[in-house]
Amino acid sequence: MSKHLRRHWLGLTGAGVLSMIVVVALLAPLIAPYDPYTQLLDGITADGSPLPPSAQHLLGTDLLGRDLLSRLLYGARTSLIIGLIANGLSITIGTLLGVIAGYLRGLLGAVIMRFTDLMMAFPALLLAIALSALLEPSLWIVALVIAMVNWVSIARVIYTETLSIRERDFVTAARGLGATSPRILVHHILPHLLPTILVWTTLGIATSVLLEATLSYLGIGVRPPVPSWGNIVFENQTYFSSAPWLVFAPGLAIAMLAFSCNLAGDALRDILDPRELGQGR
Questions:
Q1: Domain of 20: which CATH number?
Q2: Could you list the residue range(s) of the whole structural domain that residue 261 is in?
Q3: Residue 203 falls within a domain, yes or no?
Q4: E strand or H helix at 75, and its extent?
Q5: What's the number of domains the chain is made of?
Q6: Are 31 and 73 in contact (CB under 8 A)?
Q7: Taking the mean position of all CA atoms in its chain, how far away is CA 106?
Q8: Per-residue pLDDT reduced to its tens digit, 36-66
Q9: Does residue 61 fall inside a structural domain?
Q10: For 211-221, what is the mean pLDDT?
Q11: Cα-Cα-Cα-Cα dihedral sign, residues 199, 201, 204, 205
Q12: Residues 249, 68 contacting (CB under 8 angstroms)
């Protein structure tokens, strides 16, 4: 067991960093030194510039005199909520459509997969920008837009695996014993898809958070003053040269979250790989 854990120390590190970010986001109201929405009277210099990092403001203040650390802590909550909701919706939609198309096949399966191919043909970012421009931006709308963009990849993967699983002997036996299609899907096919779904769930969080940060940076994501890591960069980009901490701090937070999700997802994929399980015996 210890040898198995040592082989995936990077994944454990990623899971640890991800857990730390989640804990910090949950405890933001308790550990944030200032209200993230309050413009402090002494939060800017005499010439109207942000304050640099100091003992009073560990990461300095932003262009409006708000404590940057407090906004980052609350921004973690926004980014994670969008990442979890958007990823949950995309996994649910992609899994449902992929399983239906792969198991039923025929005309319905062909229609679903051709629609999936059509969605994959559009650049994800451009499609997200178009949808965001048509809808009124908010936390929930941004999560919905990201889900509508990201479901196609998981649908294609689930479809391919379902095609393989439906031809296995245990599914044929269940069908021969008179099991209905819903029962076969729930009790025989979905359990074998669970490792793939778990891995894509982990990896998809990073994708969703990065897309949210991109949309917020472009000004069509979560609307200020609600803090998210993407719109913190967007708000303070004009001070990139004179106050680089305003951009580097949220950028580093985004990179840490994406990197930790990818490390944990890669390790989970290796652990759940049947070949890895066989070697571990």
A1: 1.10.3720.10
A2: 10-28+68-280
A3: yes
A4: helix 68-104
A5: 1
A6: yes
A7: 33
A8: 998 888 888 888 889 899 999 899 899 888 9
A9: no
A10: 80
A11: negative
A12: yes
